[in-house]
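Dear colleague,

Thank you for sharing your sequence with our group. We've completed the structure prediction you requested, and as agreed, I am returning the results in plain text so they can be pasted directly into your records. Please verify that the sequence below matches your submission; if there's any discrepancy, let me know and we will rerun it promptly.
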Amino acid sequence: MIKYLGSKRTLLGPIVAAVQSLGPVRSVIDPFSGTARVGHALKGAGFQVFSADHNRYAATLARCYVQADRSQVVADCERLLAELQALPSRDGWFAEIYCRKSRYFQPHNGERIQAMRDQIAAWALDPEREAVLLVALMEAADRVDSTTGVQMAYLKQWSKRSYNPLQLRMPAVLDRTSHGACQAAELDALATVQHFQADVAYLDPPYNQHKYLGNYHVWETLMRWDEPEVYGVAQKRTDCRERQSDFNSRVRAKQALQDVIDHAQVRHVVVSFSDEGYLSRDELTAMLGRRGQVQALAHDFKRYVGAQIGIYNPAGEKVGKVSHLRNTEWLFVVRG
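Please find the predicted structure tokens below.
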């Protein structure tokens, strides 16, 4: 899966165990799905999962890793991936913006991305097969990018991996669970919990001012394929300025999360939240206490990639020292 700020890769075991600890549970809502790592793990553990995210790239990841069922898509998608891999390169707007006006990919890979994405659009596939191909392309591009893992900027010098040729791989799509078909949607969190009903809601909201759209704007463009207006050195989509989330606001985040908690059509709730977030452990415990008994589990967690690298000025000179390299990730388990 793609490199991702706040990925729960190392916490998948505790998260799945927390859901399993809630007794006879069949279904889970994941309204902040992100990379769909958690939804994928929950589906793999046998739960029926309803995943959603308001960003197109995240909703596409969920459609691939949560909604699509392997037996239904794998044969067609493996054949289509081979056809995409054999396409000749094609220059175009994507390569111009992200390889020459900026340096996210080397031109030889940007032109491959252009050709493959044009072809996927031309095929006009059903949502599941299209999502599998798009995710394969996104992940292939992620393996040859020239960033630190987020797209707020690109590296001054080409990364070693950027010289590698882009290679497509079949995503690890799972078989359908015995509890029924999983679903993915492009919805905001409140709309998601009002739309789906399940036994458990797993909530992993943004916890500070960092906006996922700005951090992964290239993936949003790759999924939308809309040749957007862009701005700045980073060539961000202009809607990075326009699309706002209450969860990125210190003033509005608490009420936004409370609304999701209160409206979730579930019996139990599991919340993942960092100790670096806007809300404290005590605040979250009080908010969740309206739903039932709250248990808080602490997990040591490596901080995001920027903290590992250090603090630099615009000239690329190291100017500061990061205060700490690890933080605590809380899992709040609410038995309703």
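Summary note from our side: The two ends are 33 Å apart (CA to CA).

Kind regards,
the structure core
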